[in-house]
C-alpha cells in the first residue's frame, strides 16, 4: 500500500476546484488555448457593444478569422474541414460561448447545421462547391427548418416544393433562422410528394429573401431572420440527394445540440468567474461579500452544477468519439446543461446586485442569451419527454 504525503498533492485552483482540466488531453487544451486567444483579441473587447447595438459590424472578417482557426465544421472530415474529434469541438464550443452564445450560435449553425447537412446528405458536387468555402468562413450558411407554425413539431411544416419539369418550385416561410440575413446559402427543408427533402437556396435567387427579425432581447450579437420563398425556382442539382424524410434535418439538429451541451457551460463559467471576482472585491459591513455564508453557498452551488455539467459533457463527447452516442443521450445533456447554466447565470446576477444588470459585466448578457438556448434545438419540454419515453417506453407527445 502506498501512502502519499498530502503535502505533495497539487494545489487546488479556485477556478477549477475539481481539477477537471486533468481529464483533457494536451491536444484538447491546445485547441482551447487557440480559441481563447483569438476571442480575447478579436471579440471580447467589443462583444458588449455588439450585443447592445444588435449587430456584428464586420461579420465576414470575423467568420474568416474563425475559419482560419479551423472551428467552422471542425468535426467534419475532408473538404477543407479540420477533422477534429467531437470532444475537441465541444471544448471549442465552451470557449466560444464563454465569450457569447450568439457567436457560438453562428459557429453551430454554420458547422453543425448547414455544413453538416451538405456533408452528410449532399452530392459530391454540392460538397465541393460549398464546404471548402464555408470551412474557410468565406461563405456563410443558414438552416431553414422552423416555421411560424411549426416549431417543436417539424413534421407539420407547410413549406412545399413541387416538380416543374427538371426544376423545383418552392413556396413557404421559415422563422427564427440564425445567420439568415447575411447567409450566402440556405439549407431549406420542404415537403414534397415523396417526403421531406432538403434544398440548397443561394442568396439572391429570385423570389427568395431573408428579412432580419428585430426587437429581440436575447442573442443580440447574432443575426436572426425569416426565410421567405415565393415561387423560388431551383434546378434539380439544388436538392440534397441522399435523404427523403425528417431524418435529414433531425440528424443535423442532433449535431448542433451536442455542441450546445458544451457551449452552455461556457456562459456558466464566465458568469461564475465574474461573480467570484466581484464577491472578493465588493466590501459590505466591513468585509468582502465573499466572506458571507449566503454568498459562499451561492458560489458553491454554482460551482457544483458546473462540475456535474462538465463531467456529463465530457462523457457524451467521449461516447460520440467512440461512435456510441445516441440522440436521447444528447437530449439528457442539452436539457441539464442549459437549464443549470441559466440558473448559474441568474444566481451570479444576484451576487453582483444592481451591477448584475449592467453590460459592463457579462452576466445579464449570458442570462438573456441562454433564454434562447433553452428553447432552440429542442425545448425543455421536448427533451424532458424524450427522456421520459426512454424511462417509461411511452411517448407522451404523439
TrEMBL record:
Q: Which PANTHER family match?
A: GLUTARYL-COA DEHYDROGENASE, MITOCHONDRIAL
Pathway given in the UniProt record: Amino-acid metabolism; lysine degradation; Amino-acid metabolism; tryptophan metabolism
Lineage top rank: taxon: Bacteria
Q: Give the reaction(s) catalysed.
A: glutaryl-CoA + oxidized [electron-transfer flavoprotein] + 2 H(+) = (2E)-butenoyl-CoA + reduced [electron-transfer flavoprotein] + CO2
| A family per Pfam | Acyl-CoA_dh_1
User: Which residue ranges does the record assign to the Acyl-CoA oxidase/dehydrogenase middle domain?
Assistant: 142-232
Question: Which protein is depicted?
Answer: glutaryl-CoA dehydrogenase (ETF)
Q: Which cofactors, by name? A: FAD
Give EC number(s), comma-separated: 1.3.8.6
Record has Oxidoreductase as a keyword = yes
Give all residue intervals belonging to the Acyl-CoA dehydrogenase/oxidase C-terminal domain.
251-390
Q: Which residues form the Acyl-CoA dehydrogenase/oxidase N-terminal domain?
A: 25-138
| Keyword field | FAD, Flavoprotein, Oxidoreductase, Transit peptide
Q: Looking at the keywords, is Oxidoreductase present?
A: yes
Q: Which PROSITE patterns match?
A: ACYL_COA_DH_1
**UniProt family annotation:** Belongs to the acyl-CoA dehydrogenase family.
